[in-house]
Amino acid sequence: MIDLHGYGPRLLEGALITIELGILSLILAVLLGLLTASAKMSRSWLLHRLGTLYTTIIRGVPDLVLMMLLFFGGQIGINQITDWLYVQFDIDIFINVNEFVAGVVTIGLIFGAYMGETFRGAFMAVDSGQIEAGRAYGMSHWLVFRRIRFPQMMRHALPGLSNNWMVLLKTTALVSVIGLSDMVRVAAEASKATREPFTFMIIVAAIYLLIASVSEWGFARLQKRYDVGYGEAD
Amino acid sequence: MEALMNWLEAQLADNSIFTLQTLSYYGQGLSTTVQLVFLSLIIGLVLAVPLAIGRGSKHAWLRLPIFFYCYVFRGTPLLVQLYLIYYGVVFVEGIQETWLWVILEKPFVPALIAFTLNTAAYTTEIFRGAIKATPRGEIEAARAYGMSWGLMMRRIVLPSAFRRALPAYGNEVIFMLHASAIASVVTIMDLTGAARFVYARFYAPFDAFLFVAAIYLCLTFAILYLFRYLEKRLLAHLKPASG
After folding, report:
1. Do B47 and B36 touch, CB atoms closer than 8 A?
2. Domain extents for chain A?
3. ipTM more than 0.95?
4. Which of B36, B87, B190 to mutate to test the interface with A (most CBs of A within 10 A)?
5. Average pLDDT for residues B221-243, to the nearest whole number?
6. Fold classified for A19-181
7. Most buried in the list A128, A185, A219, B215, measured by CB within 10 Å?
């Protein structure tokens, strides 16, 4: 059996942090993505510009740089705001940026931009006749979104969504650099302490491959669910 | 040049963070990043062409190992691959006594190896898709002309596959530029490394990281426009006829 020098439980905890981080930032990214897609498709000039600015900047800068900017800069920025509130209005609050929250927010913010592009393409692929039919039935905007646009959009968005998730999963490894004890950080520490980098890094790589394979299976099932009514052809 | 330096110095006179000293760190970082990205892309490209051909081979002994290599390197984070090679290379038995150690001792080469293997895996998949999309008629025509397999690959399949692969490869180049920021984790002074140094020295995260983000943004746009230009030149025949 492989000797983990007692790092087994910590590695497992790290794997859980990776999974939690991945899922929470995926949820945030999907929400931001939907917002961005709506902003970019809206008739408002300002919203359109804002959406474009967000996706362009986020997609043009490395994840690690954004993460460091938000993590190292976030605390200082928040401190400045709370200081200002204290001086101006005598409101005394203290917010401490937790690494985990910073990680979720950063990854969510980064992938929200990618999701936005995916969703925009998918929304535009929904036949406008479907929406008109929904309106003709007297459905409200929200009901049209929930019952018609969203389910049909998901069919087109799923391949892109699944791709983004795979990239997001691998990006979670970067949080180890800003000090979160995910499995990559545990493995790096263990490698240095035990001088056995191959053992730990290969285990971590295998866990990533396992998560990726499981989610690939899950996405295939989801795709099947959303393809209902379209036959096997595409 | 002298005048330019004097002008720059005067401009920066009342700026405590962006002095000529720190700008030179960013300059060196830029050169390291560009070297790292350029070298890994070139070597990765050279490796990817035979791998992509082998990936579509009839023989399982050739196809499966390449599939496995691509699967592993595309399915795990680059950071893990970098750690594996960076920390792992020290523990190869007896390597510290050989001449190889002189180059492997510095983090640049392990990072270059990790980046090259990573981009080669992605590029292999891009090329495989492009080769698979070769119209059957072109292959049949080549066969009918009595071309050998090698000649057909060289004259018919690869040139058109390269063109088809161009848009996806442009994305891969940008991806590699962004991924290269990870090199700063193993103490390489690339662009991000320079930003981290400036941040630590002045405790000024916004100045340090926003400046470097702007540089990356410019590099990204430069790559984007280069590939757009190349696509316009090389894919002109695929455009729908205008008019």
Report:
1. no
2. 19-181
3. no
4. B87
5. 83
6. MetI-like fold (1.10.3720)
7. A185
